[in-house]
Amino acid sequence: MRARYLVLQDGSAYHGYAFGADNEAVGEVVFTTANVGYPESLTDPSYKGQILVFTSPLIGNYGVSPEQWESDSIQVNGAVIFDLTMPSHYTSIMSLNEWFRREGVPGIYRVDTRALTIKLREVGVMMGAIADSIDGAFRILRDAPRYDDIDFTRLVAPKNVISYGDDDSPCIGIIDCGVKMSIVRNLLRRGFRVVRYPCHMWKNALNDCDGILLSNGPGNPNLLTHLSDVVTDIIRDRKPTLGICLGHQVIALGIGARIQKMRYGHRAINKPVLDLIRNRVYITTHNHGYAVDPQSIKGTGFRIWAVQPDDNTVEGLMHERLPILTTQFHPESKPGPLDTTWIFDEFAKMVTNHGH
Ligand SMILES: NC(=O)CC[C@H](N)C(=O)O
User: Fold this and answer.
1) Catalytic residues per the record (predicted)?
2) Which residues line ligand 1 (CB under 6 A)?
């Protein structure tokens, strides 16, 4: 066992042991309370630029299997866990340790993740670094740019247009800021052709496709000024549109709403969401650190259709007249409960009805 350290911007240091690659990591330190689904979370492009702390104490139990991946590689800059367990599962092709090693991502285990989570919950998320010495970790941290100032979508958006499915089917254009593969799968399952456009090519998506999906993605939505006209054009073209997480935030910005940074965000697979229209509660998957200011929705032509009952976060927006729907939560639910996959059925209906 080789000692390794996690240090935080507030000067605190946590002792643990090394797993995965031998390099160092820097990033915004955030925690997820999901107790299953570590392969999906680790490969979620929305985590780019972040060091992910798992509050669940046993991570690695069922190993690594590519069917569970949300993209083709580990996306987190580093991981912090308590107990690194050996895998026992028939689909597992390697251990977490080996996976991190192969992909050049460092991890640290046997960290007191309870103390760390309480700190992040109370002080708020902050920058941190993982290295084999405390001094080394502080040095990296000092020189690192701040998470909120970097546009990480450039690192995770596809380089080229990618198409899936049957050419004759109606087409959904994904404005791709780092889409999770289970969103693509949910659209394919409903009979659509799916085309992923790198997010700066959003105009092509609007020209070529019957419906638009503005994807999830990493980083500060306020930096995505190159997407600011998306919403004007979607409204002008009356395009059926679904915005998920970052996509929801981009739509909110486009209608003139404000986005704020949350203290520690929502990263979990058991967050209640109250549907104000159907008067129902869903248990949902979340991964976000920014949220829409509800006051700023007034007078935009959109209404809030869902909220998070614990802290009143805006969870969904819909246009008063046009087929435009958004969710701050993740209806694809990978990992997580399947309460809200109906959102994709609703979107499919919006696209189909619009064509007639
Ligand atoms: N999962 C996402 O799309 C995250 C959106 C955004 N980066 C946030 O943290 O709020």
Assistant:
1) 245, 330, 332
2) 46, 216-219, 221, 245-246, 287-290
pLDDT, tens digit (0-9, with 9 covering 90-100), for 214-236: 999 999 999 999 998 999 999 99
* Closest protein CA for atom 3 of ligand 1: 216
The pLDDT value given to residue 354: 87
Boundaries of every domain in the chain: 3-149, 155-354
Structure tokens at 71: 């993209």
pTM to 2 decimal places: 0.97
Q: In what order do the strands lie in the sheet with 259-275?
A: 162-164, 193-198, 171-176, 211-214, 241-244, 324-327, 314-319, 302-307, 259-275, 280-292
| Residue 355 marked in a binding site | no
Cα(350) to ligand 1 centroid in Å equals: 25
Q: What's the CATH superfamily of 155-354?
A: Class I glutamine amidotransferase (GATase) domain (3.40.50.880)
- State yes or no: 178 annotated in a binding site: no
State the closest ligand 1 atom to the C-alpha of 290, by its place in the atom list counted from 1: 10
Q: From the alpha carbon of 218, which atom of ligand 1 is closest?
A: 7
Going by C-alpha positions, the residue among 210, 156, 206, 124 that lies closest to residue 45 is 156
Q: What pLDDT digit, counting tens, does each position of 62-114 carry? A: 999 999 999 999 999 999 999 999 999 999 999 999 999 999 999 999 999 99
Across 300-326, average pLDDT: 98
Q: Is the ipTM value over 0.95, yes or no? A: yes
Interatomic CA distance for residues 216 and 43, integer angstroms: 13
3-149 placed in CATH 3.50.30.20: yes
How do residues 191-210 score in pLDDT, each as one tens digit?
Answer: 999 999 999 999 999 999 99
245 is catalytic: yes
330 in active site: yes
Distance (Å, whole) CA 179 – CA 182? 8
